[in-house]
Amino acid sequence: MEPLIKFTNIKEKSVLPGFGITVGFTILYLSLMVLIPISMLFIKTSALTWPQFWEVISAPRVVASYRLSFGASLLGALINAVFGFLVAWVLVRYPFPGKKIIDVLVDLPFALPTAVAGIALTTTYASNGVLGRFLEPLGIKAVFSPLGVVIALTFIGLPFVVRTLQPVLQDLDPEIEEAAACLGANRFKTFFQVILPAVFPALMTGFALAFARALGEYGSVIFISGNMPMRTEITPLLMITKLEQYDYTGATAIAVVMLVVSFSLLLTINLLQWWSHEDQPN
Amino acid sequence: MSTPIITEKKWLRILLTSISLLFMSLFLLVPLGTIFYAALQKGLLLYVTSLIEPDALAAIRLTLLTATIAVPINLIFGVCAAWAIAKFNFIGKQLLITLIDLPFTVSPVISGLIFVLLFGAQGFLGPWLIQHNIKILFAVPGIVLATIFITFPYVARELIPLMQAQGNDQEEAALTLGANGWQTFFHITLPNIRWGLLYGVILLNARAMGEFGAVSVVSGHIRGLTNTIPLHVEILYNEYNFVAAFAMASILALLALFTLVAKTVVEWKL
Amino acid sequence: MKTNKPQTWIQTALLTIGSILMIVMSIQAGQNITLLNVSYDPTREFYQDFNAAFAKYWEAKTQQKITINQSHGGSGKQARSVIDGLDADIVTLALAYDIDAISEKATLLPKNWQTRLPNNSSPYTSTIVFLVKKGNPKGIKDWGDLVKPGISVITPNPKTSGGARWNYLAAWGYALKQNGGDENKAKDFVARLYKNVPVLDSGARGSTTTFIERGIGDVLIAWENEALLSVTDIGKDKYEIVVPSVSILAEPPVALVDKNVDKHGTRALAEAYLNYLYSPEGQEISAKHHYRPRLASVAVKYANKFPKVTLFTMDELFGGWQKAQKTHFNDGGTFDQIYQH
Question: Do C177 and C209 fall into the same domain?
């Protein structure tokens, strides 16, 4: 392995040992556990011709599920962007009783199993639930509706924005804000023209992470959504439905679409993170 | 910490804090409370009996077994990958990082689906497995594999930025002093990353124990044999046994809370 | 500074993991003879009792201890799992089409499986009725009331639930009879009915939970056995059953899975298990769990429990399950057409 590496100049000169064994093992494990199984999706889908593939992934019910999955994920991520920013700001800047507990709880969606989250949210927001009973008279249906899906996806994405913003807000140099204040800017102006641009890359990263996480979410949504075709059916559920109709190629075709989108989002996130590190002075 | 000139007026601070707390309550605190309220609704005795029921115990055992296998394996991989990525620069490094992250964004349903395609009776390896009477899908190995896939990136993602931030200096110094690779790793690197490692393991464990979607596709739902705690919660829920369902759910909620507390302790040490 | 310390450390770890795995696997082997019964959603309580009774009967007869494992879920989903390799010795599903699919796609049992046991391999039957809140506040009397504006109907998703397909066809059958066999008018009726459905759960149980626990909907279209379970057990005194003018004869079939039982060597046991379903004891247990027994002697005992309904069959109105599945539930079938609008 060593001669090959030296010859082909794959890696930069380094003193540290273990390149061969660690990269080798990493690639082996990656292939076995991730690449080969995922390639099955593409292999299975290749049984379809391009026109057939297009027909499957553009069927009205499938398209309706994309609209819901994408739309609700986007909305959830936006809500998290706004309120997550707020929570991060409050946690970093203001003292208040119980702050430590709230800070710890932000990670709850990350640690709590999705099915548990699903039944908890459904029970809370059902028309006879603790919070749902207040929404009922207002005519708001929080379960078995697209709103329910948004609620579940907001829950799921909550930690991403907060946790991405907290370190950045903490590292903000107070001198910049003081300078702005000295130059006559009020707090609003300072916020929008000084602070927001500085944390924007991190905010975008958090938003993208919340969005990506929400797209594929299954466990917490199926309890609360109602699963009505064309109305409240998310794409992962549609995949399972196709599977249960013995339509494997249909299921894998949709899976391929979702995989391509996830992968693109992931690349975008990595680029965003690279961009935000470029901006921060080391 | 902030001087008055760059702090908002008091009323604004209170308003913003209240809105954040309201947001947190609506989405986190109330649902969390609902779990425990529903579990304990019919009293402590019923709560405890639901937990020691044979199928429930079997689910707990299976969940623990899955985690016991998935965590060490992904831990070893994570450390390996982090070493390769953080300590060296090579072509294709960015691609490798993205590929490692892939299970993180793939829908759990897809994760289960690919194992069905690979190991199912109609799948790629199906006939071979049947011939040799090896049961992967709808049995414990399938559940473990699906869980390993889902939790694949956790430790690696945690360690890579940490090791990159720490740099190579200490390791290089050790090498010049005559240590070999293993010694350097165990006596220099490992102590430096131990809190990040612990954090990664804690998160990995929580996710491994709580995974639902992927395991649901590959499990077969055989009561007492191939149901993990999350699947058992769904079964109980479907049998109108809400107290028992929330009782099991509360175990997972407690695990989640424990994870959060442990994480805070670790961060304090970092 | 021992240089072999890391190696032994890793070796020990691997050895430990390996031993744990071996212990676990050996515990799972060497147990009693086991049967795996893969069943559909609402039979949970029934098979719990039946399995206990059968195990006792078998042990008394042969001194052999047996364990029967159960798996439950939507009928279509369970069939899919068996096709993908779930090692069922016995399948007890909601409709013949799902077992046909296992035979067709995985050739695990012969095409003529349904003729091997009496009564089309259905030891008990059920039908489709309505469950409403006590006092019947919305005055639901028959199928026609379900399409009225403002009525909220709960029924599961026919794509995944067997019970949902029986519900769908029962409604369709009613409309056919009302309109002299006019398929278009029937489709129109069913479309209007589904407009009144706010949530489609994946299984019959999910729908019952939605109706009873979540309090959603004015009427639940349900298996008769689910409805009876609701009024006697879960939702005691809060619900009542409304029997429509006509309904469909639902025959949930049972079968042994030839390839699997031969592989496990459990054929004799599986056959005895299925035959026990037809025995007086088995029929009693089904009647207790609200299924209509086939055996005349038992049926007579429980005659008061099961209301009289005019029943039509799958074959007479729909030409059997293969045709019905293709026409109504496959991609592009009437259910899809209804939902595209």
Answer: yes
36-75 of A, contacting B, C-beta below 8 A:
36-38, 40-41, 43-44
In 3D, which of C175, C214, C234 has the Cα closest to residue A226?
Answer: C214
User: Which among C1, C86, C208 has CB closest to B220?
Assistant: C86
C211 CB neighbours in chain A (<8 A) are none
Chain A residues with CB inside 8 Å of C197's CB? Answer: 228
A282 interfaces chain C, CB cutoff of 8 Å: no
Contacting residues of C for A243, CB less than 8 Å apart: 80
Q: Is residue A78 a contact partner of residue A150, using CB atoms and an 8 Å limit?
A: no
**Which of the four pLDDT bands, split at 50, 70 and 90, describes residue C6?**
low
Q: Answer whether A227 sits within 8 Å of C198, measured CB to CB.
A: no
Q: Using CB atoms, which residue from C159, C200, C336 is nearest to A226?
A: C200
Residue A226 or residue B257, greater confidence: B257
Please tell me which residue of chain B has the smallest CA distance to A209: B105
Share of chain B above pLDDT 70, in %: 97
Number of H-type helices and E-type strands within chain C: 16, 11
Residue ranges of the domains in chain B?
Answer: 1-40, 43-269
- Within the 39-68 window of chain A, which residues sit less than 8 Å (CB to CB) from chain C? 59-61
Contact C41 B135 (CB under 8 A): no
Do residues C110 and C139 both lie within one domain?
Answer: no
| pLDDT, tens digit (0-9, with 9 covering 90-100), for C35-70 | 999 998 888 889 999 999 999 999 999 998 999 999
Task: Tell me chain B's radius of gyration from C-alpha atoms.
Answer: 23
Tokens of C217: 């909907």
Its CATH class, for the domain covering A50-279, is: mainly alpha
- C40 with C93: CB under 8 angstroms? yes
The predicted structure's pLDDT at residue B1? 45
Q: Against a cut of 0.95, is the pTM above it?
A: no
Phi-psi region of C107 (alpha: psi -120 to 50; beta: other; left: phi over 0): left
From the CB of residue C261, how many other CB atoms can be counted at a distance below 10 Å? 21
C2: confidence class by pLDDT, cuts 50, 70, 90: very low
The residue count for chain C: 341
C14–B contact, CB cutoff 8 A: no
Are both C232 and C263 inside the same structural domain?
A: no
- Angle, CA of C216, C217 and C219, to the nearest 5°: 140
Binding-site residues on chain B for chain C (CB distance < 8 A):
65, 68-69, 72, 116, 119-123, 126, 129-130, 133, 135, 137-138, 140, 180, 182-183, 185-186, 220-225, 235, 237-240, 242
Residues 6+ apart with CB under 8 A from C64: C33, C58
A143: chain C residues, CB-CB within 8 Å: 214
Q: Is residue B112 within 8 Å of B218, Cβ to Cβ? A: yes
Instruction: Kindly tell me if the per-residue pLDDT of C300 is higher than 50.
Output: yes
Q: Does the residue C21 lie in any domain?
A: no
* B167-188 b/e (C-beta count within 10 Å ≥ 16 → b): ebeebbebbeeebebbbbbeeb
Same domain, C109 and C186: no
Q: Total domain count for chain C?
A: 2
Domain that holds residue C167: 126-250+309-340
Residue of B121, B137, B238 with shortest CB distance to C106:
B121
| CATH at C230 | 3.40.190.10
Domain ranges of chain A: 1-46, 50-279
CB contact under 8 A, A144 and C199: yes
The CATH code for residues B43-269 is 1.10.3720.10
Q: What is the pLDDT of residues C127-180, one digit of tens each?
A: 999 999 999 999 999 999 999 999 999 998 888 788 899 999 999 999 999 888
- Output DSSP code: residue C332: T
Quick one: closest CA in A to C77, which residue? A244
